[in-house]
Amino acid sequence: MIPDEQQSYYTDVRQHHLEPLWAIPDWFLSVEPLPPYRPFQWHWRDVYPRLMAAAKHMVPGQGGSRRVLVYAHPDLKSTLGTTHTLNVAMQMILPGEEAPAYRHTPLAIRFIISGQGAMTTVNGERMAMESGDFLLTPRWAWHDHRHEGEGPMIWMDGLDIPLTRYVGAIFVEPYNQPMQTETVPFLQSEKLFGVAGLYPKALPDLHAANGTLMSYPWHQTRQALNAIRDTVPNPYEGAIVEYRNPLTGGPVLPTLGATMQALLPLEQTRRHRHTSSVAYYAYRGEGSLQIGQTWHDWVEGDVLVVPPWHWHAHRNRSHSDEALLFAISDEPMVAALGLYREEVDHD
Predict the structure, then answer these.
(1) d(CA 299, CA 238)
(2) Containing H/E element for 29?
(3) The pTM is what?
(4) Distance CA 41, CA 20 (A)
(5) Deepest in the core among 236, 285, 289, 344, taking most CB within 10 A?
(6) Phi/psi at 123 (nearest 5 deg)?
(7) Within the chain, which residues score under 50 in pLDDT?
(8) DSSP code of 293?
(9) Are 106 and 139 in contact (CB under 8 A)?
(10) Type and span of the H or E element at 158
């Protein structure tokens, strides 16, 4: 029971927009992180029909630049964040459509889900989009999309919009025409930097920001996964590879990391936790993700969020097929701030 005099003091200071920190000790000095949101899962069976239906209500370039559904966490409604720092979204473009060129300060990745015949152009470099490919859009890079094939083209977007908005640095600028002119040879960055450890000694003019690898094709990711699976699997993640900048050896983007992992039939990993948040996309197979004490069963297309400092582990439910999970996280940003910490379960 707070004495009346002390309660009167609290009331007085709060009327002057001050706060007695000792009265709310957990706000600052909690023993462990207290993320303001819970683990969450979106089911593909709910997302896919609504993504298809979006074609009736929106055309790229007409009333909006992109046909996108954002995975908006119910505990983060004010930011539309999937986590407190990242957005995950699903984008679709139909044959003959063009998503006009613009640039923005939030950086982005594209993980291609399905479809053929679409292209994305980033700072004048045109890149193919095939299932399993991983593409980059750095900060303030011009980018557009067009679909010259057949059937819907679907991919996952990952952006650091909540973080960029929090620091007050959101900028967006439209291009001076609907679509970019191709000024860089097709797949130039992949040809220059796509072979590990072998790079041109004298770099040509790379036209602004594309001075590193921009496209990570699925066949190379598949090859790397196979090699890891047969040699040094991670006891907490299975066979896992991290997409990295080939020139620096660091993360592909300053605030966003990405991985692909494979779980063998009936494989179950051990638990760990870390101070970075993770959003998983179930690319192939079926499995379960344990977060805390709860197992969340997933199938292809589902998205699951693990907040910071939550124990989690993986399980492949299939007796015969591997399970593949693509993930994005804010680990590079957390690590750059000196705040990354990981704990493993030794039981």
Answers:
(1) 18
(2) helix 26-29
(3) 0.92
(4) 37
(5) 289
(6) 50, 45
(7) 206-209
(8) T
(9) yes
(10) strand 153-159
- Rounded Cα distance, 68 and 89, in Å: 6
Query: What is the rounded distance in angstroms from the CA atom of residue 256 to the CA atom of residue 306?
Result: 15
Torsion sign (Cα): 288, 227, 88, 127: negative
Give the Cα separation of 66 and 125 in Å (integer). Answer: 20
DSSP states of 208-252: TT-SS--EE-HHHHHHHHHHHHTT--BTTTBEEEE-B-TTTSSBS
- Amino acid identity of 346? H
Place of tokens 């790397």: 224
Least Cα distance to 214 among 193, 183, 240, 241 occurs for 193
What integer pLDDT is reported at residue 234 of this predicted model?
85
Distances from the Cα of 195 to the Cα of 119, 189, 314, angstroms: 22, 11, 31
CA distance 40 to 282: 14
Per the structure block, which two tokens stand in for 88? Answer: 């995950």
Rounded CA separation 90/157 (Å): 6
What single DSSP character describes residue 269? P
Domains, in order of start, for the chain: 33-193+201-342 (2.60.120.10)
Nearest CA to 258 out of 213, 291, 288, 321 is that of 213
Predicted pLDDT at 246 = 85
Provide the 10 A C-beta neighbour count for residue 215: 22
Single out the residue of 138, 135, 38 nearest to residue 91, CA to CA: 135
Rounded Cα gap, residues 138 and 174, in angstroms: 16
User: Which pLDDT belongs to residue 208?
Assistant: 41
